């Protein structure tokens, strides 16, 4: 694929920028759907953390988390543009379609990475900034450039990148990494494999065609399903720890039990299913599951929300 704009039929959407790209194309580079979960979990970490952070600084911290996540997504698209052009799920992205050049995508991602890290450090604190930079570097160098194309355990190890946001939000308030924030990290870390393997089960042909060694492609569907159930069984008890550690209360704990039982049920059904119907259901539920967990955690810590904005005493 050539990068010469004269050889490309540009598909314009939204407001066109110089070179044929549109605002929508640059937004697509940021992977907004992925970013939404990153921002939500980062905001949750900020809300449930004990202490006070000025509302403006809290907004800056969330902005930095969002921009850094988008920057990592842009660099990921730059590096993966060859396999993105092959897979049905990704072939309409701006780079495979030629609407943005690789050089533009890389520059965009690197600039946003530096901006978000420096802003977090200067405006909030350097602990949060270091965690932010670490998450970005892990996603780009460890997952995208190394693990994704070399091992079926790419999601297991690479999932750490997506698990950083609640720790970053926590550190933005406290300036530290505590056991409670590590538990928030572990929830997303253990959730990632069953979530992505559910997707991989009904997108197996796509990954095989692109040469990405996702677990169903390398080890087969039955092994993948067993691994999904194993990770789910480990995940659910971890999701209960915030109640025991005081990060959340009984409302969250009760809901986490019920949601966890549903997640386990779907994982068992995936194992028993000869097709991909339950894999699709589990994938859809897994997204709602994580949003619900962190949403309930914040709801259970509503007094902490008031404390964050200086409207009452510090959260206990």
Can you walk me through this structure?
- The chain has 316 residues and is mostly helical.
- It has one domain (22-308): Farnesyl Diphosphate Synthase.
- Helices cover 73% and strands 0% of the residues.
- The protein has 16 helices and no strands.
- It has helices at residues 23-29, 32-48, 55-79, 81-84, 102-123, 126-147, 154-158, 160-163, 165-174, 179-202, 204-210, 215-219, 221-245, 250-272, 277-300, 302-308.
- Helix 2 (32-48) runs parallel beside helix 15 (277-300), helix 3 (55-79) packs antiparallel against helix 5 and helix 3 runs antiparallel to helix 9 (165-174).
- The protein is flat and about 50 Å long.
- The N and C termini lie far apart (58 Å).
- Mean pLDDT is 88; it is low at 1-18 and 311-316.
- InterPro entries: Protohaem_IX_farnesylTrfase, UbiA_prenyltransferase, UbiA_prenylTrfase_CS, UbiA_sf.
- This is Protoheme IX farnesyltransferase.
- Converts heme B (protoheme IX) to heme O by substitution of the vinyl group on carbon 2 of heme B porphyrin ring with a hydroxyethyl farnesyl side group.
- It is found in: Cell membrane.
- Its EC number is 2.5.1.141.
């Amino acid at each position: 694929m050539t990068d010469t704009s004269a050889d490309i039929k540009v598909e314009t959407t939204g407001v066109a920028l110089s070179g044929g790209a549109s605002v929508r194309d640059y937004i697509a580079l940021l992977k907004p759907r992925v970013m939404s979960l990153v921002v939500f979990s980062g905001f949750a970490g900020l809300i449930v953390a004990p202490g006070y952070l000025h509302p403006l600084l809290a907004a800056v911290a969330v902005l930095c988390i969002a921009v850094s996540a988008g920057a990592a997504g842009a660099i990921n698209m730059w590096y993966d543009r060859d396999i993105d052009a092959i897979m049905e799920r990704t072939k309409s992205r701006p780079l495979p379609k030629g609407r943005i050049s690789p050089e533009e995508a890389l520059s965009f991602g690197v600039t946003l990475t530096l901006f978000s890290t420096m802003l977090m450090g200067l405006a909030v604190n350097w602990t949060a900034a270091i965690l932010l930079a670490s998450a970005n570097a892990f996603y780009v160098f460890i997952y995208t450039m190394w693990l994704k194309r070399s091992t079926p355990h790419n999601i297991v190890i690479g999932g750490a990148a997506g698990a950083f946001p609640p720790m970053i939000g926590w550190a933005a308030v406290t300036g530290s990494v505590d056991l409670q924030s590590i538990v928030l990290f572990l929830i997303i870390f253990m959730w990632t494999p069953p979530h992505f393997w559910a997707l991989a089960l009904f997108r197996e042909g796509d990954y095989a065609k692109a040469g990405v060694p996702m677990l169903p492609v390398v080890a087969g569907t039955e092994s993948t399903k067993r691994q999904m159930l194993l990770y789910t069984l480990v995940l659910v008890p971890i999701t209960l720890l915030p109640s025991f550690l005081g990060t959340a209360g009984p409302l969250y704990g009760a809901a986490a039990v019920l949601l966890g039982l549903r997640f386990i049920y779907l994982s068992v059904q995936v194992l028993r299913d000869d097709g991909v119907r339950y894999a699709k259901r589990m994938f859809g539920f897994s997204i709602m599951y994580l949003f619900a967990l962190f949403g309930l955690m914040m709801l259970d810590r509503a007094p902490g929300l008031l404390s964050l904005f200086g409207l009452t005493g510090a959260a206990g």
